[in-house]
Amino acid sequence: MSKNAATEKLAPNHHQLTEEQRQLVDRIMAFTKQQLTTKQTPAVFTITGDCGTGKSVILSQLFYELQQAAHATEPPLAQMQNYFLVNHPEVLKVYKEMAETEAHVLKKNFLRPTSFINQMQKQHQQADVVVIDEAHLLLSQPDHYNNFYGQNQLEEILKVSRVVICVFDFHQVIQTKNYWDENLLQRIVAPYKHESYHLTHQFRMTASPALIDWIDAFSRGKLQPLPKTARAHYDFRIYADAESMRRAIVTRNQAVGLSRIVATTGYPSTLDGGKHYINETGGFRMPWDQYNYTATPWAEIPATINEVGSIYTCQGFDLNYVGLILSPLLYLDQTDQRIKVDLSKKTNNEMLKRRKDITDPQLFTQMQHQIILNSVNVLLKRGIHGAYLYAHDPALQQALLTSYQKIQ
């Protein structure tokens, strides 16, 4: 894959939609035309699906077609003012880069949600069609640090839009300030005309369905025996030490590119501009990813082979091979053989920050645990051709190795 692999994946001229994807784009276009014609707005269309089910590809194609229609003469889509929103700064870079190559798709069409909301409110404007990728990253509480003073970003977007099309994956919720579940989404869209569609087919990983199921169970805390097909058409490995895994990822990166080491939170790190190292078995010592001030996504910068990626730099991106370190936060409870979260070892307070609207301590603790497990799911599914895994917790590591040896 080339340096601009992420852009090529999303650019409409570089992919061919499946029949299901084509039908879904056509259905959303028809939904949009109907709502704009009948003026039953605001209206909402939601797409749900797990990591790798092609959600972003569909949105990219959809927005391209909306922009072509906006520059034509046929109503009701002609002369529409459309926007594409994404709350992930690294993913936003990809979309802006793509905009340079597509007719009528401009960089100014792509915004962070807060920028869009503030712009519309300040100018007393209403957008026609708003497409939101990674909508599970929308803020669901005020965040003054990010200049958002409302209660929920989706609610605010609906107030200044005629039609909203958004993607949700509840298994990719990775911060309490962005916490979403199905009940919250349904409550917000209930007053409006609403349609939805659920995607199930896995496009990113070449792994067997049985291994995908194993990863899904693993990210829910269930440690099951590895399926016999874990390595069928997919390079899945468990490593006894982190340094051996790092060397294997470097070798893969030299051969095919876009191969990176990533880790779950649970190692010391602060936003002070300095380097904060992860030290693990086998002499492993690497710094966390640095804030990326460039226009190039973190995963596509060659030098980041010498950094450990986080959920903040890797969510939403395809890698050829991923090597995941499970931090001290995650451990195997040998009484019930479940993977659990030790919150006493948390190092990212912002990720698990308390919410004033959730007063039940037990409920909030469950939310924090699920957010950490969600991050495992997201990071482990980054690799198209392979995923390598190492766990800091000795009991979990031994259980993984024992299961792995049985399928060798």
Produce a short descriptive summary.
With 408 residues, the protein is α/β, with parallel strands linked by helices.
Largest sheet: 6 strands, parallel
Q: Provide the helix percentage.
A: 25-40%
User: What's the β-strand tally?
Assistant: 15
**Helix-strand pattern, N to C?**
HHEHEHEHEHEHEHEHEEEEHEEEHEH
- Mean pLDDT level: 91
What does this structure look like?
Helices cover 34% and strands 20% of the residues. By secondary structure, the chain is α/β, with parallel strands linked by helices. It folds into 2 domains: 5-199, P-loop containing nucleotide triphosphate hydrolases (Rossmann fold), CATH 3.40.50.300; 209-405, no CATH class. Strands 3-2-4-5-1-6 form a 6-stranded parallel beta sheet. Strands 7-15-12-8-11 form a 5-stranded parallel beta sheet, with helices on both faces.
What characteristics describe this protein?
408 residues; alpha/beta; Rossmann fold; six-stranded parallel sheet; 20% strand; DUF2075 domain-containing protein; SLFN_3-like_DNA/RNA_helicase
Spell out the blueprint of helices and strands.
Elements: H1 5-10, H2 19-38, E1 43-49, H3 55-70, E2 82-86, H4 89-99, E3 110-111, H5 113-123, E4 127-133, H6 153-159, E5 161-168, H7 182-189, E6 193-199, H8 209-218, E7 235-238, H9 242-256, E8 259-263, E9 277-280, E10 284-287, E11 308-309, H10 311-314, E12 319-326, E13 330-333, E14 338-341, H11 361-380, E15 383-391, H12 394-405
Parallel strand pairs: 1-5, 1-6, 2-3, 2-4, 4-5, 7-15, 8-11, 8-12, 12-15
Antiparallel strand pairs: 9-10, 13-14
Helix pairs in contact: 2-3
Domain Schlafen group 3-like DNA/RNA helicase: 43-393
Pfam families: SLFN-g3_helicase
InterPro entries: P-loop_NTPase, SLFN_3-like_DNA/RNA_helicase
